[in-house]
Amino acid sequence: MIASRRQFLFGSAALATAALLPSGAAAQKSGTRIILLGTKGGPTVGNGGRSNAATLLLIDGEAYVVDCGYGVTRQLVSAGVRSVRYIVITHHHSDHDLEYGALIYNGWVGTPQTINIDAYGPKGLEEMTRDFFRYEKLDIETRIKDEGLYDLRKNVRAHDLDHEGAVLRNAAVTVTSCRVSHPPITESYAYRFDAKDRSVVISGDTAYLPKLANFAKGADVLIHEAMYLPAVDALAKSSPNPERLRQHLLASHTSTEDVGRIAKEAGVKTLVLSHLVPGVASTAITDEMWAEGVRKHYSGKLIVGKDLLEI
């Protein structure tokens, strides 16, 4: 009865939001599909109607989630996805990992299937995983005893990354990493997914970095963070320390013009702007405004990301 109730609740939420995506969106078992779960940059929530950073790749029916910003579980439900097999974290800013533990937990209590998760991210992910399980120890052990659930802690494997290169490889995809520039954080990565039908690069958070163009060379899709410079000063003024915030944004994110430079040099077929900065003003910045700087350098297919948009 308990498992059936959980399945009903999770299923009802998925049905309520199924109209947001094409019919059968979560059922496809072959090929590579990309769904933007969250396209907002920055740690605040509820601004501009966008969720925090998260991207879903469905590769031959298995779900890979890159980054776990706040709201990722809700967005996965909206995408009709019931379980996650792999989690990949670009770096340890809260808008990229705040819902990491909760995503794992929600998969445990939200579906009748047994979860089996491998998670990859910069050093600290293994400790974060252990800390989350300690944090929810009472709840987990109570539900195991009281509801007959299995011990999810035995089914989650976290892997710290401390170098560029190979991340994971299976029959469907090879995942590699490239260290990017996001000061003051030194361990911040972009990831490349080379599947049989598509190659996808996700930049993570980064300042302008020419070597990223080489990493993304020839990719079918580059999902790159983007900063709209004319709105940065207005965002900074809302901070208790305006100049400090402004300096951080300019030093650790990529302007739309520089995103265009990276996409052109890489020769990617499709460029997707995501992790939009400033996120709080994203609804006031039109797609044309986001595209203007990019188009000074890149003439290929350009998409301004929206939550739950399939690429």
Provide a compact summary of the structure:
The chain has 311 residues and is an alpha/beta fold. 32% of the residues lie in helices and 24% in strands.
Walkthrough of the structure:
The protein has 311 residues and is of the alpha/beta class. It has one domain (2-304): 4-Layer Sandwich (Metallo-beta-lactamase, Chain A). Helices cover 32% and strands 24% of the residues. It has 11 helices and 13 strands. The strands form 2 sheets. It has a 7-stranded mixed β-sheet with strand order 7-8-9-10-11-12-13, with helices on one face. Strands 1-2-3-4-5-6 form a 6-stranded mixed β-sheet. Helix 10 (256-266) crosses helix 11. It is globular. The model is unreliable at 1-25 (pLDDT under 50).
Task: Based on the model shown, name its key terms.
7-stranded mixed beta sheet; alpha/beta; Metallo-beta-lactamase, Chain A; disordered N terminus; 6-stranded mixed beta sheet; 311 residues
